Amino acid sequence: VQLQASGGGLVQPGGSLTLSCGVSGSIFRFTAWGWYRQAPGKQRELVADITSDRNTNYPDSVKGRFAISRDNAKRTVYLQMNSLKPEDTAVYYCNKRFSPFFTWGQGTLVTVSS
Prior knowledge:
- This protein is mostly beta strands.
- The chain contains no helices and ten strands.
């Protein structure tokens, strides 16, 4: 399975971005997925997850600002990010919600700065 995240970039505080993660392989539909991020000098953290039944969960740090969704036909997971803050700056990755994880992709860099 290969994970390809895209859609990152430089955005001003208060702005929005939508990330996409394409997943190869046929296991997509039956798998819970997560978006993770890792800021410089910090551990990787989960910022959103979605079950196969499309139930979603968010930590308080992004709740109300981020929205995860999935398209089973396209085998793609999305992360809509609104009201971005400088502290959202990180490399964003997608992977399974629960271990064992697939090999991590390169991720996509999100920089929130004026």
